[in-house]
Write a structure and sequence with these properties.
Length: 185
């Protein structure tokens, strides 16, 4: 009998599948935070900006002894601000420091993406609305406490806090996870 006959292949395949299913290492272990964020293939959320143009300002000091805990992505006022990931708009709000802001979340609502110092938001955006990675959301500006001569997007990645209190989540440096150049779909 020929060793590579069809029944032989089929039983070999079934054995291989059974072995996979029984192996503890390949069972449905949930992705770690790092694995999950890498799998999102996040886009630089400012149009035309590549990953290599980003400066790591995550640990930079800020007033009052605080650390920045976010990235500042420098761009001309009016440059398009894009959805970093597929997901949903959590909140559309204004605050004193951040100015005009947006909060997004990923499809599994594990993380929060905070956008601040926006100039204009796209007309008609709604909280709860679904967004696609690369979708136009707003434009870069200097609202809030951003210097008027240095328009930029203040972008922060946060773990979703228990109880979905997105504003209290633990910050994470987004730089290693921004994989794709900022371009519209
Ligand atoms: Zn900032």
């Amino acid at each position: 009998m020929k060793p590579w006959s069809l029944p032989f292949l089929r039983s070999a395949l079934l054995l291989a599948l059974a072995a996979c299913g029984m192996s503890p290492n390949t069972s449905a272990r949930p992705l770690t935070q790092d694995e999950y964020l890498r799998s999102r293939e996040l886009m630089v959320p400012v149009q035309g900006v590549s990953r290599r143009q980003l400066r790591d300002t995550y640990s930079a000091p800020r007033s009052g002894g605080r650390a920045h805990l976010a990235l500042d992505i420098m761009a001309k006022k009016g440059t398009r601000v894009l959805a970093v990931d597929d997901g949903y708009i959590l909140r559309i709000a204004d605050n004193e420091l951040g100015g005009r802001t947006l909060y997004l979340t990923d499809p599994s609502r594990r993380f929060v993406y905070y956008y601040a110092h926006l100039d204009k938001r796209v007309y008609g955006l709604q909280e709860g609305q679904r967004v696609k990675r690369g979708q136009l959301l707003a434009t870069v500006g200097t609202s809030g406490n951003a210097p008027k001569d240095a328009p930029h997007l203040h972008f922060q990645l946060l773990q979703m806090a228990p109880g979905k209190q997105w504003w209290t989540g633990e910050p994470i440096n987004p730089l290693p996870y921004l994989r794709k150049k900022g371009d519209e779909r």
